[in-house]
């Protein structure tokens, strides 16, 4: 099986966990992740000798129309999109009643697992990781693509410990100034999204980035995801508690991103110039 340092390794003849062949060239192996509609399996590409991740969908569930829409949306969203911090989708295969999305394999798993193992990250470490996310989201927003489901579980770590954004099943192109579809997770979603308002998708992604940065430095989420909708919205009107050991700049950036009223929330382009994020660039220049 692939190690964390190299995805290009030969498959051992005695490894019988890779026991299903998917044309044109993939041997499907053990499950490495589970979602609402799909399982993610490790696979081996016989053409290239590279391990890949394969998201497998069954169209027998009775919800296949919704599922097909999600698969098509995700495929179109990332088709031709190349970026160091976005998981690459190689191809989508229809085989019988199953659909397989062949993707880049990220052997260190997701960011939630990483934080659960490591605990709260230092600000320097969080700043490096957050910089990866900023580069990826900037790329998406530059082509008016809104992720809408940014969360720890959808951020993966590759063999070089670089963060990569995955799972574009909720992604939408923002044509015009607003979107209106409710989607994503209560724990990470912006208040205006769940109120049913028309919303600026770029600013809802910023809110989710604020939740993720909070989780990096606090090793927990700032808000509940259970309760009545009004209770959840009321909780988000107040700034979340932050450790007194955090720098004022870090606290300031988190609170600017987790601003309840999207009209006052910091936009993505201003995050780049925030003193907390700029600290890394300044230290590299010295």
Automatic annotation (TrEMBL):
Superkingdom classification of source: Eukaryota
Gene Ontology MF terms: ATP binding; protein serine/threonine kinase activity
Binding site for ATP: 55
GO biological processes: intracellular signal transduction
Residue ranges annotated for the Protein kinase domain, each copy included: 26-277
InterPro entries according to UniProt: Kinase-like_dom_sf, Prot_kinase_dom, Protein_kinase_ATP_BS, Ser/Thr_kinase_AS
One GO location term (cellular component): cytoplasm
UniProt keyword annotations, A-Z: ATP-binding, Kinase, Nucleotide-binding, Serine/threonine-protein kinase, Transferase
Pfam families: Pkinase
SUPFAM superfamilies with a match to the protein in the record: Protein kinase-like (PK-like)
Any coiled-coil regions, as ranges: none
Family of the protein in this entry: Belongs to the protein kinase superfamily.
Protein name (record): SNF1-related protein kinase catalytic subunit alpha KIN11
Organism: Geodia barretti (Barrett's horny sponge)
């Amino acid at each position: 099986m692939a190690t964390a340092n190299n995805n290009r390794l030969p498959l051992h003849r005695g490894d019988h966990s890779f026991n299903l062949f998917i044309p044109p060239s993939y041997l499907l192996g053990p499950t490495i992740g589970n979602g609402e509609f799909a399982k993610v399996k490790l696979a081996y590409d016989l053409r290239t000798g590279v391990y890949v991740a394969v998201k497998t969908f069954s169209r027998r569930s009775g919800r296949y129309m919704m599922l097909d829409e999600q698969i098509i949306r995700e495929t179109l969203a990332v088709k031709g999109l190349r970026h160091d911090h976005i998981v690459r989708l190689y191809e989508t295969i229809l085989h019988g009643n199953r659909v397989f999305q062949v993707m880049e394999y990220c052997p260190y798993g997701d960011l939630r697992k990483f934080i659960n193992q490591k605990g709260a990250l230092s600000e320097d470490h969080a700043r490096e990781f957050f910089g990866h996310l900023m580069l990826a989201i900037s790329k998406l927003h530059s082509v008016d693509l809104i992720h809408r489901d940014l969360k720890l579980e959808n951020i993966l770590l590759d063999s070089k410990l670089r963060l990569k954004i995955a799972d574009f099943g909720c992604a939408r192109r923002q044509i015009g100034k607003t979107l209106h579809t409710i989607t994503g997770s209560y724990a990470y979603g912006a208040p205006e999204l769940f109120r049913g308002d028309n919303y600026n998708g770029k600013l809802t992604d910023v809110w989710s980035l604020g939740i993720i940065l909070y989780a990096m430095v606090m090793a927990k989420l700032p808000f509940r995801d259970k309760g009545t909708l009004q209770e959840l919205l009321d909780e988000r009107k107040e700034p979340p508690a932050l450790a007194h050991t955090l720098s004022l700049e870090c606290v300031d950036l988190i609170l600017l991103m987790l601003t309840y009223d999207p009209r006052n929330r910091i936009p993505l382009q201003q995050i780049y110039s925030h003193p907390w994020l700029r600290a890394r660039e300044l230290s590299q220049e010295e």
